[in-house]
Design a protein that fits this description.
single chain, two-stranded antiparallel sheet, 7 helices, about 5% strand
Length: about 220
């Protein structure tokens, strides 16, 4: 965790300030990073970058779009059960289930950070040149960045799949969700390896993440 520097915390001089910049979900703009002060924005509740309804709204929007597309392809397959339509419907059913599992984990972790805001300094610190921040803050920032990245990436892919209704367009959604699953799993492993967080009730959600990974891997192998 020491090597990761969040764009929410520092004015960065490097081009890869965010861990998500290497994941093709959404671009992280360096000019945005350069405008931030070198401070911990979680020093008080009023400086939190995303209020709770925003995170919950992002998750709800993603799941709603995925579920709507799933329903569309299921209806299409029922009306005209060609091999292609059945394949599209089955793939979206799998993506829908995987998304639900992953967003359950993310929502749970976000609520945990909300509950433990006032205990954030008890979970350890991460040191950077000239300043440090709590591991609680790293977790919170990871959740917010990844939720934002998924929302920006996945909704346009869903709109494209609805328009094109092709295997390739649906596969683009699955591939993005697979990358998202990998990053959710990484957050769970890191925070789940913090004994003080686990003792305070942090749940790694290994079952849900594992289920999503197996679902998406199965679809990839088809």
């Amino acid at each position: 965790m020491v090597s990761r520097i969040s764009r929410f915390y520092i004015k960065s001089t490097c081009s890869a300030a965010s861990r998500w910049s290497a994941i093709p979900l959404t671009p992280i703009h360096e000019e945005d990073e350069m405008d931030l002060e070198e401070t911990n924005i979680y020093a008080s509740p009023s400086t939190t970058p995303f209020a709770e309804p925003t995170i919950e709204a992002r998750n709800a929007a993603v799941q709603s779009h995925i579920s709507s597309l799933t329903s569309h392809f299921k209806s299409l397959a029922e009306a005209n059960p060609t091999r292609e339509h059945l394949r599209l419907a089955n793939t979206m059913i799998t993506i829908d289930h995987a998304s639900s599992c992953l967003l359950t984990a993310i929502s749970s972790w976000f609520k945990w950070t909300q509950t433990h805001y006032h205990q954030q300094d008890t979970f350890g610190q991460v040191d950077f040149p000239g300043f440090s921040m709590s591991k609680w803050a790293v977790l919170r920032s990871d959740i917010e960045e990844l939720s934002e990245a998924l929302t920006i990436a996945i909704i346009p892919l869903i709109e494209t799949a609805l328009e094109l209704q092709t295997k390739a367009s649906v596969n683009d959604i699955r591939n993005a969700m697979s990358r998202y699953c990998e990053q959710v799993a990484e957050i769970g492993r890191e925070a789940g390896g913090n004994a003080s967080m686990v003792d305070a009730g942090f749940e790694p959600h290994e079952y849900e993440i594992g289920t999503a990974a197996r679902d998406l891997l199965f679809e990839t192998s088809q």
